[in-house]
Amino acid sequence: MIKKGDSRGLSPTMATVLLIGLVILIALIVFLWLRGLSQEAVIKFDKNAELVCDEVNFEASYSSGTLGVSNTGNVPIYNLKVKMSEGGSFKTSELNQVSEDWPEFGLSRGSTFSDELNIGNSNKLTLVPILLGNSKSGKEKTLDCDDSKYGYEILL
Prior knowledge:
Layout: H1 12-37, E1 43-44, E2 47-48, H2 49-52, E3 58-63, E4 66-71, E5 79-86, E6 89-94, H3 95-98, E7 112-116, E8 124-134, E9 140-144, H4 147-150, E10 152-155
Antiparallel strand pairs: 1-2, 3-4, 4-7, 5-6, 5-8, 8-9, 8-10
């Protein structure tokens, strides 16, 4: 038997406040999730720069402490990510950070680059192109091409 004045449930006001709070929380989670999915794309040659990575062509060699790179494609290479493999570990740096001679605006079509590079005891070099493009807001942004698809390996 329920006595008058015995309240065992939520009042309508509290239920409304909890419901509104739950809806706001779900909306915030969805907003943050969608924001993470829609990162600003880098555009080069009026298309997504990730697609332009397919068009990058370059050749590289390492001999007697000198790294040589030749851009044989039609896409300018802004920079190169250098992965030095020693056993199971990797050391990664960008070529413009380890070489003072890397051109300020990268390797244009048909250009070559050569410089001494200290690789220590590395047994493999992987060179990955970095492209320069524009975001939709007009700012210049760089894009690292995918290591596994576009990396150029040199076994030492």
